[in-house]
Amino acid sequence: MAPPARCFATGRVALLGFWTLEACAGTTSFLKLSAASNDLGDLARTCDADTVRAANVKQLHPILFDLANTTFFRMFRVNLNNPRCPFWNSSSSSGQEAGTSCTAAPLPLEQKSPFGFGKFGSSPFGAPEPPAEGSCTVAPEAANGFPLGSQEGDPLDRSMTREERQLQEVRKEEAGPSCDFEEDLQTYFSDMCSGDGANTDSEDVNLMKNPERNTGYNGSHIWEAMFKENCFEVGSGLPRGRFGGDSGMCYEERVLYRLLSGWHAATTISVAKNYYVPGTKEKSSWAPNPERYMESLGRHPDRSKNLEFSFVVVLRALKKVSPFLQTYPFHTGDSHEDRRTTSLMGRLLDSQVLSVCSPLFEAFDESSLFQTKSKEQRAQLKRQFKSVFTNITVLVDCVKCQRCRLHAKLYSLGLGTALKILLTPPELIAQTIRRDEVVALVNVLWKLSDAIEDARILTELAWSQQQQQANEDSAKAMLAQQAVFDAARDKHAADALHLAEVALSTSTRTMLLDAALGAVRLMGSGGGLSTDAEETLLRSLVVQRPSDEVLLLAKHYAGTRPEMFAKIALEAVAGAPTLGGAVSLPPPGSAASPADAVVIGGGLAGMVATINLLDRGARVVLLDKQPFLGGNSGKASSGINAAVETSVESLIADTTKSAGALVRPALIERLANDSAHAVNWLRTRIAVDLSMRSQLGGHTVTRTLRPKNAFVGAEITFSAGQLLMKLAAERPQQFRLLLNTKWTALERGGAGWRATAVVNGSERVFEATNVVITSGGFGHDVTEPESLLLANRPDLDGFPTTLGPQTTGDGVKIARDIGARLVDLDRVQLHPTGFVDPKRPDERTKTLAAELLRGVGGLILDREGRRFTDELDTRQAVVNGELRATEEGRDLLPPMPPRSFWLVLNGKAAAMADRHTTLYSKKGLLTKVKGVADLAKLLGVTETQLRATYKEYNAAAEVGRDPYNRTVFPAGHWPVELDEDFYVGRIVPVIHYTMGGIAIDDEGHVLSDEDGKPIPGLYAAGEASGGVHGDNRLGGNSLLECTVFGRHIGMNMPLPDRKAVTAAATLVQVGGDSVQQAPQKAMRKITQQDLAEHNSKEQRVWVDLYGLVYDLTDYMDEHPGGVGAIKAVAGKDGTEHFEAVHNREMLESMGFKPIGERTD
Question: Catalytic positions, please?
Answer without folding.
Answer: 831, 854
